[in-house]
Amino acid sequence: MKTNFCTLLALIIGVLTSHRCSAETPNIVVIMADDLGYGDVSCYGATELQTPHIDQLAKEGVRFTNGYCSASTCTPTRYSLLTGTYAFRGERTGIAPPNSPAIIQPGTETVASLLKKAGYATGVVGKWHLGLGGPGGPDWNGDLKPGPLEIGFDTCFLLPTTNDRVPQVYVHDHRVPNLDPADPLWVGQKKPSPDHPTGKTHRDTLKMDWSHGHNSTIHNGISRIGFYTGGHAARFRDEDLADKWVEKSNEFMEAHKDEPFFLFFSSHDIHVPRMPHERFQGKTKLGFRGDAIVELDWCVGEVMKTLDRLSLAEKTLVVFCSDNGPVLDDGYKDGAIEKNGSHRAAGPFSGGKYSVYEGGTRTPFVTRWIGRIKPGVSDEMVCTIDLAASLAALTKQPLPNDACLDSFDVSGALLGQASAKGRDHLVQQDNGSRGTFGLRSGKWKLHRYQNKTARNVRVEQELANTKVPMHQLFDLSEDEAEKQNVLDEHPQVAARLQKQLDAIIEN
Ligand code: NG6
Ligand code: CA
Questions:
Q1: Helix/strand/coil for 158
Q2: Which residues neighbour 375 within 8 Å (Cβ) at sequence distance 6 or greater?
Q3: CA distance 410 to 89
Q4: Which of 217, 223, 225, 266 for a ligand 1 pocket mutation test, highest count of atoms within 8 Å of Cβ?
């Protein structure tokens, strides 16, 4: 009798506790590559180079064939990843200039703030490109806030914009480290003095020439977008960025190894200027673009090594993704076009960076959680915008009604559960909210153009611009390369998708 009573009590306590503890709190590491295309890694079909570490991750986890980022440029994808809301709903969410103020306002619910509520230590290391500072822009010599720390991150170690933009300094929490007050940092849009050397006036001194834009202030033999002076003691070498991201990520994971942590490892590879560390230069036949992919792959390997060393591989969900599709010539003469050979950066898809063809947003997407995720390949549609709702669901954090408006809980699909579904539709954006969109709905894909120009339709050529009708419709189940506009054959489908797109945009 007594035993029975105890057994019953234990059962009740067990049920109650398991209920209370049903939220799962693995460490979460999101590794986002920059400008990496669907076909740029060997587990997605690349044959001209090898990415053994990313392949290993895919082998141990789920490799998504319908994994997306939400825009074909950086700032809107990152905005959506963090806020769970389409970038076209926000202000100034197009590609951010060097002196952009913070784009995500303090108080906005983000992946980081949600996970912080769930008890996570939260950190971001690497490319930010979401602006810093109040309406006047960043105070480079003072406190750089608001920034990541005001939207849920406990700590940050950043490349403030993107490395083809000025300035080449890091940001640690609210400050530029190693800044000498006697040599203040000035960042601006206009030449600071008539004799200021630029990529135009001192072109013959450059170690990598520019092809379009990118001809203002020179640092480390590379001319950039925008002007700056001062801050010399704080400046970095482009070649050292990847090592720094690995060092700072390791520090963060080690410091928080005994509590759940969320690390957003935001790589700058393989964005221009592609200037990998000397030890990676020449590693591929594809020039610095290929070498930067190998450097990125090395970073992924280093993160995995650290998780193994800290015995955290079975306690950590790793997500690998990209912020937009590929581009070959993005403003520097780094040989990407000449050395491309038979490499297909966007895999089987058309378009790439800046475009709403599949190549712009369908990108490598892998999840791994050893012991929890059954390895495999998934055709479910998932997007970086879904991380907010999915990770909130996993950690049992309620989503406020006015937050993460476009993020779906696809946690089951992300964890590779057999019958779990991904999303059934997705709006694909190009840059800002200029009115060019793609809508994928099941097997159908609608394009809507504002300017009637499909930018960068062919990534293997330099900024190929093609005239297109305002609307196009493709059947991805038969035509994944979006070559055959079938709008005239399926007017009702096109009308339905146009209505669906309008409803989402105007919502
Ligand atoms: C474009 C730049 C391009 C790149 C892009 C942002 C020119 C001519 N082109 O304006 O080089 O910096 O912005 O890329 O300046 S992203 O991946 O950060 O969105
Ligand atoms: Ca990018």
A1: strand
A2: 59, 60, 61, 62, 416
A3: 22
A4: 225
CB 218 within 8 A of CB 204: no
Q: What angle do CA 247, 250, 252 make, to 5 degrees?
A: 110
The residues, any chain, with a CB within 8 Å of residue 466's CB and separated by 6 or more, are: 453, 454, 457
CB 482 within 8 A of CB 349: yes
Atom of ligand 1 nearest to the CA of 331: 11
Sheet containing 171-172, strands listed edge to edge, beginning at the edge strand earlier in sequence: 171-172, 155-159, 121-127, 261-266, 27-33, 316-322, 366-368, 62-68, 376-383
Q: Are 135 and 169 in contact (CB under 8 A)?
A: no
Residues whose beta carbons lie less than 5 angstroms from ion ligand 2: 34-35, 74, 323-324
Six token digits for residue 289: 């673009």
ipTM above 0.90, yes or no: yes
Q: Which of 69, 161, 162, 321 to mutate to test the pocket of ligand 1 (most atoms within 8 A of CB)?
A: 162
Q: Are strands 27-33 and 316-322 parallel, antiparallel or unpaired?
A: parallel
Q: Which atom of ligand 1 is nearest to the CA of 165?
A: 12
Q: Are 498 and 447 contacting, i.e. CB atoms less than 8 angstroms apart?
A: no
d(CA 68, CA 382): 6
- Give, for all 507 residues of the chain, the pLDDT tens digit: 344 554 454 445 444 433 333 578 999 999 999 999 999 999 999 999 999 999 999 999 999 999 999 999 999 999 999 999 999 999 999 999 999 999 999 999 999 999 999 999 999 999 999 999 999 999 999 999 999 999 999 999 999 999 999 999 999 999 999 999 999 999 999 999 999 999 999 999 999 999 999 999 999 999 999 999 999 999 999 999 999 999 999 999 999 999 999 999 999 999 999 999 999 999 999 999 999 999 999 999 999 999 999 999 999 999 999 999 999 999 999 999 999 999 999 999 999 999 999 999 999 999 999 999 999 999 999 999 999 999 999 999 999 999 999 999 999 999 999 999 999 999 999 986 668 999 999 999 999 998 777 777 667 665 567 788 889 999 999 999 999 999 999 999 999 999 999 999 988
